[in-house]
Design brief:
- The protein is mainly α.
- The protein is built from eight helices and two strands.
- It has a domain of 119 residues: Orthogonal Bundle (Arc Repressor Mutant, subunit A), CATH 1.10.10.10.
- The protein is elongated and about 60 Å long.
C-alpha cells in the first residue's frame, strides 16, 4: 500500500481537456507551412485555393506516414486496387499513375521490398505484371477510405448541383493552368 498522499495538480495547471485553448491543427499548419504573403495577395481566391490544396495534400499524406509509405505510393496502390484482383502490366500502371517508367520501376522495387506489391504473370500469354499483396490490398482500402472521408468532410455540405458546378469550375481551372505551364 502506498503511504504517500495523492498529489493535487498545481493551482495554475492546464486542464486535461485544453483543446479550446490550443491552436487548431490547421492554424499550426498555416503558421509553419504558409509562406508569408502580403495581405493583398493572401486575400485572393487563388491564394486560398493554393492553400486549400496544400492542406488537402497534407491530410492525404497522414495515413501514408502512419503506414510507413511515401508520397506517391498511394497512386500505385489505389491504381492496382482499382484494377481488381488480376493486377496489371507495369506499362499500364505507369499510364494510370502518370509516373515515368524509371520512377515507377524504383517505386515498385521498394513496394515489393515492403510487401505491398508482387510481380505476377497476367493472362494466357503470361505478360509480366504487378499486383497487390494482401498487405498492399489492406493498405489500399485504408487509403481509399481516408480519401473518401476527406472528400465527404470537404464536400458533404454541398448539394449535388453545387458539387457538379464546383467540379466543372475546377476542371476549367486545371485546363487554364495547364496552358500556363506549357512551353
Amino acid at each position: 500500500m502506498n503511504d504517500k498522499p495523492a498529489q493535487t495538480p498545481p493551482h495554475n495547471a492546464a486542464p486535461v481537456n485544453d483543446r479550446p485553448k490550443r491552436a487548431s491543427t490547421a492554424a499550426l499548419v498555416a503558421l509553419y507551412f504558409t509562406p508569408l504573403m502580403p495581405k493583398r495577395t493572401a486575400r485572393t481566391d487563388l491564394y486560398r485555393l493554393i492553400f486549400a490544396g496544400h492542406l488537402a495534400r497534407q491530410a492525404l499524406l497522414a495515413p501514408l506516414a502512419r503506414l510507413g509509405l511515401a508520397a506517391g505510393d498511394d497512386a500505385v496502390l489505389l491504381a492496382l486496387a482499382e484494377a481488381g484482383k488480376s493486377g496489371m502490366p507495369a506499362t499500364e500502371l505507369a499510364e494510370a499513375t502518370g509516373m515515368p517508367d524509371p520512377m515507377l520501376a524504383k517505386r515498385l522495387e521498394r513496394l515489393i521490398e515492403f510487401d505491398q506489391v508482387e510481380r505476377c504473370a497476367l493472362g494466357p500469354d503470361l505478360t509480366p505484371g504487378v499486383d497487390l499483396t494482401g498487405a498492399g490490398r489492406d493498405n489500399a482500402e485504408v487509403l481509399l477510405a481516408h480519401w473518401l472521408r476527406l472528400e465527404d468532410a470537404l464536400m458533404g455540405e454541398l448539394s449535388r448541383k453545387d458539387r457538379k458546378k464546383l467540379r466543372r469550375i475546377l476542371k476549367r481551372f486545371n485546363a487554364l493552368l495547364a496552358l500556363q505551364v506549357e512551353p
